[in-house]
Design goal:
Layout lengths: L1 E4 L5 E4 L5 H8 L1 H6 L2 E4 L2 E4 L8 E6 L4 H22 L4 E2 L4 E2 L2 E7 L11 H13 L5 E5 L1 H11 L2 H8 L6 E6 L2 E4 L13 E11 L8 E10 L2 H16 L2 H7 L3 E2 L10 E2 L1 H20 L3 E2 L5 E3 H7 L1 H5 L7 E2 L6 E4 L4 H9 L10 E10 L15 E11 L4 H18 L5 E7 L12 H17 L4 E5 L8 E7 L5 E10 L1 H5 L4 E2 L5 E2 L2 E6 L4 H12 L12 E5 L5 H12 L5 E3 L6 H10 L4 E5 L1 H6 L1 E6 L3 E7 H16 L1
Parallel strand pairs: 1-5, 16-20, 22-23, 29-30, 29-31
Antiparallel strand pairs: 1-2, 3-4, 3-5, 6-8, 7-8, 8-13, 9-10, 10-11, 12-13, 14-15, 17-19, 18-19, 20-21, 21-28, 22-24, 24-25, 25-28, 26-27, 31-32, 32-33
The structure holds one RNA strand of 75 nucleotides.
Amino acid sequence: MIKIKFPDQTEREFSEGINPIEIAKSLSNSLAKEIIVATVDGNLWDSTRPIYTNCEIKLHKWDDTEGKHCFWHSSAHIMAEALEYFYPGVKFGIGPTIENGFYYDIDLPDGATISDSDFAKIEKKILEIAQGKHDFARKEVSKDEAIQYFQHKGDQYKLELIDELSDGTITFYSQNSFTDLCRGPHLADTSYIKAVKLMSIAGAFWRGDEKRKQLTRVYGISFPKQKLLDEYLHMLEEAKKRDHRKLGKELELFMFSPKVGMGLPMWLPKGAMLRERLENFLKKVQKKYGYQQVITPHIGMKDLYVTSGHYEKYGKDSFQPIFTPAENEEFLLKPMNCPHHCEIYKSKPRSYKDLPLRLAEFGTVYRYEQSGELHGLTRVRGFTQDDAHLFCTPDQISEEFKKVIDIVLYIFKTLKFNDFTAQISLRDPSDKKKYIGTDENWEKAEQAIIDAASEKGLTTKVELGEAAFYGPKLDFMVKDALGRKWQLGTIQVDYNLPERFELEYVGSDDRKHRPVMIHRAPFGSMERFVAVLIEHTEGKFPLWLSPEQFVILPISEKYNEYANQVLQMLDAYDVRGFIDDRNEKIGRKIRDNEMKKIPYLLVVGEKELENKTLSVRKQAEGDLGMQTIEEFARFINKEIEKELE
RNA sequence: GCCGAUGUAGCUCAGAGGUAGAGCACUUCCUUGGUAAGGAAGGGGUCAUGGGUUCAAUUCCCAUCAUUGGCUCCA
């Protein structure tokens, strides 16, 4: 007999060789049917794999991440089997699970192609295999056996993977006619899978290396019930409605024009108004924190970027340099604001009494992004950073860094970005060549970030190898409507640029010292931030940011004149709106302006004219009743105050 | 950049080797209507661009441009 301990700390005895499903069955039959996989002493374990020793066990159903992942992983194997059926000779790369579903990288036989028109038949085949209720059989194999199997099959990708595994740890899983190199675990059998959908096809370089062969990646997702698939697809449809590219067009916030150039956004009047409000908001906060605004040009001499190191790093991949006709001088579009700011720092001698010097600029920068990387407003070639550079003494870093964190958190709180992750990006210790600067400075900078984040009580995730080439950073990531993560706020410590630009200050000891720089952008870029803001609010911006806060709806043309008076009076209270004086019925005006997501609809007709009032209707909520013009103006200003608290 | 998909009216989309379609938007007229679509008429397209096949191409083929999903999440 063996002793098995459950998560609630109770212990029971079972006979040796019992498996998780049988254990579940001893608790309840219905539970047994739902068990997908188990964790045994911290290791994932097939639900049908026997247990021979005392252990702690945790049973996973579909609702657990572990359950879903096992489910999808097994689905990937069945998809592989189906693909092999339609494309004999296909070779397989890797087939892991992802956040929503799974994929398999395949190398199609010569001449074969696959496109989404093939999805239906593959899905059908997958379900057919699933319904066959084939067991997933686990088999431990020796390295030699494994090599032999895939040599015989001619799958060089699997052979490459096996090559990196050590003997004695290799397992195969088979179902029906398909066997794969796999660590597992898997479902008991294929019949758990009741619904499957192939999502898309993509090219993916083998092992993520663009010098190696590009494989075809097939994405899919599967569910234990058809209803769950339907729900998932519906959820995707809903998410698409929040897409900032769609809303940006509908709400006339920004546009692109192939004639201007891909990835070069243009802000329309309403978008510009929104952006300006965000900028002014941040300027006000920054003023409180002792920042000073500066303005620098959009281009700079090549030599500026040679000094900064950007030329060496990005020069080749950037936009082509600009040459002056007479002198043949070489300029670059600025990819970053920091070199200019360094020159401002250098413009006169600085004393320790001047530090920290905080130079802020909404600086527009241009970066050549690969055409395939462009994405709405979140990934563009010309964008405006809410940039600032803090020049300080080494012992001021920690304090300054923490103040920046405060600003970021204040902004996120005001805009209700509650669901963000803070990521500390450090050097890849195994590839230090990628970075510029001394080891000692890197270590100091990395430690400064880690300490500041922990002091501010941030829950952080550390990512090695994600640092900028000139320094480590703390990034604030937020997800978009479709669950893609974007970096918004960023704070970076930099010992490198002060060195390269030979920045100095005179200390209290009357000697020259080198300052440290902190780069920071709480929004990140105005473009990306607004994109994420659109998706978060579904275009229903907080009142203070709404390009149009109210619309006046006259019941009929007879009340247009009164509407004009109201507009003028509200203008005086610093609220923004317009009159919908179209020749339409009130119901129509309400519908159209609701769809435009105008926060307040003000109906004026006979009654309002008589009493000098407004009928206030809140978007998505309905009638709030009559208010005088002053009451409404005070009310709306109070609402804004509350938002900005 | 690479792999896949897409490109038809301002927007959302249907269509077919032989004279270009719908809904919404727009213009004009009727209507002056009290909380999510009043009625009628009308204008609007080099079917992304450039080649090719064909008696005939917006449709088929090729290229280009743009948009879009992915190329990190490791058997």
